Amino acid sequence: MNKQLVLQTDFGLADGSVSAMYGVALSVNPQLNIYNLTHEIPQYNITK
């Protein structure tokens, strides 16, 4: 069974932060399914 990872961050999409996170996660488990919930929530307010 493949593992699932859902990402919710305040990183935005202007730089390579999300891509770096993908790379690290996939280096740990290449079979991982990654889904993006959002990367545009207000900075430092991950409860939104």
TrEMBL record:
Highest taxon of source: Bacteria
S-adenosyl-l-methionine hydroxide adenosyltransferase N-terminal domain ranges (all copies): 5-47
Protein name as it appears in the record: S-adenosyl-l-methionine hydroxide adenosyltransferase N-terminal domain-containing protein
Organism: Jeotgalibaca arthritidis
